[in-house]
Structures are given as C-alpha cells and as structure tokens.
Amino acid sequence: MRFRHSDGTTVHLAYCTNVHPAETLDGVRAQLRDHCEPVRKRLGRDRLGIGLWLAKEAARTLVNDPSALRALRAELDHRGLEVVTLNGFPYEGFGAEEVKYRVYQPDWTHPERLAHTTDLARLLAALLPEDVTHGSVSTLPIAWRTPYATDPAAAATARKALTALAQRLDALAELTGKSVTIGLEPEPGCTVETTADAIAPLTAVGHDRIGVCVDTCHLATSFEDPDTALDALHTAGIPVAKAQLSAALHAEHPHLPEVREALAAFAEPRFLHQTRTLTAAGLRGTDDLDEALAGVSLPDSTPWRSHFHVPLHAPPAPPLTSTLPVLERVLTRLVGGPAPLTRHLEVETYTWQALPAELRPRTRAQLADGIAAELTLARDLLTDLGLKELP
Q: Interior CA angle at 227 toward 223 and 229, to 5°?
C-alpha cells in the first residue's frame, strides 16, 4: 500500500511474511498464493506491499538461479504484490517448534551473517518495483548480549562486517541504481537493546546506508520514550531504515493473581518473550515471560511489558492490554511531521499461531482476515495523520 506524504514523498506500508514461515523458494511462492494475495483481495487493493522474509535456503536459490529470481518477480507482479523491504533478522528455522535464542544466530560476528545480508540486498535491488529506487532490509541488532559481552574481539569483528556491508551497498547502488539501507533492529536482551544502544556502534560504522529499524513493540517493551529515542537518532545522524508496526503485551498491575493468570496464557514455548518493568532504580527484566512469572526476580509493583507481538486491531482482554498507544506516538513522529523520517512501514505480527488457543486463527481465511484488519488499522492511522492513500 502506498501513501503520499504532504511533502510529496511516497510512504510504503507492507506486512511481514515471517508470519507464514517458509525455508524454501517453493514455500515462499506458496505463501504468495495462499496468504498474501488473499490479504490483498480482502483489502480491495490492486497492489499490496509485503515485507518478504527469505530464509537462507530460499535466498541462496534465488542468488544462484537468475531465472528463478525473474520468475519470482513475475509472480509478485501477477499476484498484485510488491516488495520494497525484506526482513533479514531470522536466518533460518523461524517456523521451528522452538525458536527462542536460535533466532540470534548467526550474529554479526559470524561471516554467514554478512554473506546472507549481502545476498538479501542484491535480491531486493532486483525485486524493487520499476518506479522505486530505495529498499530496506532489517537485521538483528548485532548479537544476543551473551557471549558477545565477554568477547573482547566481538565489537571490532561486528564493526568490520558492517563496514564491509556498507561498501557492498555502495557498489550495489552504483551498479544497479537502487539504494538499499540496512536497519539494525534493537531488541530486548540484545547487545543493542534500545535505540540509544544503537548510536555508538552505528556512529563507529559511520555510513548512511546502515541505520536503525524501529520496532514499536521492542521500543515499548524497553519503556523507551518515542520522542527521546527518535530525537537522539536524528541528532546522531542515524537514518531510520524502516519501522515495524507492532504492539507489546502490557500488564498494568502484575502483582494481582488474575493478571498473572492472564499473562500465563501468553507464556508459550516457541518464541522468546523478554519481559521488562521500569522501576525507580531503572529498567529490570527477564529473558522470558515464564521466568518473570515463576520467581521474584522481576519486581511487580510497576507495570510489566512483554515482547509478544499482539494483533494491532485486537488487544488482549482485560486485565491485559497492548502498547498500541506507543505505536501511535512513534508513527506520528515518523510520518506526521513536515517530512517523513522513514519511507517504509511494516506490520509485523508474527505470533498469530503463538496466541492463546482461543485467540488463534483456525483457518487460512481467519488469518487473512486478521492481517487485513491490522493493515486497515495502520492505513487509518496514516490517513488520520494527513497522508493520502494512493491506488
């Protein structure tokens, strides 16, 4: 979906296909047929943006077979789909029964991460619509905090890899005329947990093709103030490559038994749900929601937020809620001013099948209905900010 900002810039809205995880190219093509095109039709749109997730195997197939890449581009066109952004955070195995800490491997201290992200940038340059010259790829925020923090060479290794990536992106732009920006995606528990944490390593790289992907669930989980976060990025000259529109799970009174019972329904075995609370002594947290519920390591006298991407249009029932208001504040800052701070917005609720059983979609049709409802909410927020929806 495309929107015109008042300054004439085109702002793209997509949804991320990591909600339909597939490891192979055949699986990706099935996603387009079984999920993405039905969502487009529900929205009554001739064209729908998708934030494509390409696992290692699918990406390598496309890199090694130019005819397969051309066929994918043709199929996107045939199904009324367009790609201006890729999700490069998960490397493989995102559809596994247990993802948890595995999603952070390989990190930016491993050559496989540089190779994969380079592949994604090259593929995106070939998949961009003819009238679009700029693409974005989100990636993990360098590494999970351990064992990175205890390795004296880790920071230098990651910086060298990101610098090499920036040079490759420059060469790609010169060769293709397409500019691709990479966004480190701050996430709780990682060495770059917040946007503030991103400033030092990105300043060290010092390149305008390497910036930040602002995930509004992650930002809210870490209790970051949107204005402070975005002001700091602007002052440091760090671009917002894209924003992922997502909402975290919020519990206002985690000490109450009924609140803990409600939270326990979201403590599931597949994904990591880092949980945080902001106290007078600062931010406290656990690596997972069940850890927070099981012990006394997390103070419960202040609200809890958990890294669980809940559907934007359907917050959990009381006594829980979502951090949708944080998303709205971030979106206002990103695209509600005289000029947009990013051109790429991506709804990223990948946890539909991890929701409590009574909230999960039971059919493809129900999932498509939910994703379409999320995109409708995002569209309404954008038009309320004065952006004009384009055909």
A: 60
The continuous run of DSSP H or E covering 161 comes out as: helix 154-176
In order of 74, 117, 130, 326, 332, the CA distances from 343 in angstroms are: 24, 20, 17, 19, 13
**How far is Cα 123 from Cα 103, in angstroms, rounded to an integer?**
22
The radius of gyration of the chain's CA atoms, rounded to the nearest angstrom, is 20
Interhelix angle 226-236/324-335, nearest 10 degrees: 30
Beta bridge partners of 48: 81
pLDDT in tens, 258-293: 999 999 999 999 999 999 999 999 999 999 999 999
Given a contact cutoff of 8 angstroms between Cβ atoms, the answer to whether 145 and 191 are in contact is yes
Q: For helices 364-384 and 324-335, what crossing angle results, to 10°?
A: 50
pTM: 0.97
Which two three-digit tokens encode residue 11? Answer: 């702002």
User: CA–CA separation, 102 vs 256, rounded Å?
Assistant: 33
